[in-house]
Amino acid sequence: MSVKKNCSYFIIIFALMSLSSAWAQEKLQSENNFVPQIQKEVQLGNQEPLPSALNPKNYFALFNYSYLDLIIPSKYGFTAGIFSTEDESWELEFLRGNLSVPFLIKDLGSMSDDRISVIHRPLSSKTAFNFSYGLSFFSFTTHVGDKLLNRLSGGRFTSVDLINIQSLGFHLGLGHRWTFNENIILSIDWISWGQPLINLKKESSFLDYADNPEDRSEVESLIKVTSYFPRLSLLKVQFGMSF
After folding, report:
1. What does the pLDDT look like over 206-235, one tens digit per residue?
2. Which CATH architecture has domain 59-242?
3. Which end of the chain is least crowded, N or C, by CB within 10 Å?
4. Across-strand partners of 199?
5. What is the pTM of this model?
6. Secondary structure (DSSP) of 212-227
7. Distance (Å, rounded) from C-alpha 240 to C-alpha 216?
8. Burial annotation 98-112 (CB, 10 A radius, 16+ → b, else e)
9. Does residue 54 carry a pLDDT above 60?
């Protein structure tokens, strides 16, 4: 009886010792796995953040500059937008170009070309590439130069709008957009195309007063060209931040 009792004690002690040993080995293994994980996180924390196409913020504001742009080059403006999801945005873009030197017809005064666009931009999380599309409002205004102004009937005018054209159309574009440090945005639209389709306003006060057939013919030709002239843009740069 005492032998059986001693065997029972030995079995219980052996089982407890086995459980204790297994628990100690499991604890040591977890500690060994924990240290490399901490070292990995520290190393990642010391690395510079890589640029990404995605942005965790909700809103953003950008400054725009488009040197190669039609009808008037060197357009500038701004963009205000919202990230509807992590990989797509909706944007309101404004661009303006001014020019005082005539290059379409002689004797022109100053010209201005404005473009307001509502743009949807899906973003690729892997390549930062994007294809943008949307609707655009176009406004093109030209003022009469001094030579044409002096030839108007009566010579009573000091300033006359040569043409004023407003229209609606579409926007298409291809580009890349990167995000640095989670809120700094750099974007390049390699090419974008704005095309007027519907004329909302087309008027020329100059034609109401001009008597010279040659002047009238030049202005009428200018109206036809600018009414549906494509607005092509190359290498448009955008820079700003999200918040």
Report:
1. 777 777 777 778 778 878 888 899 999 999
2. Beta Barrel (2.40)
3. N
4. 167
5. 0.70
6. -HHHHHHHHHHHHHHH
7. 45
8. ebeeeeebebbbebe
9. no
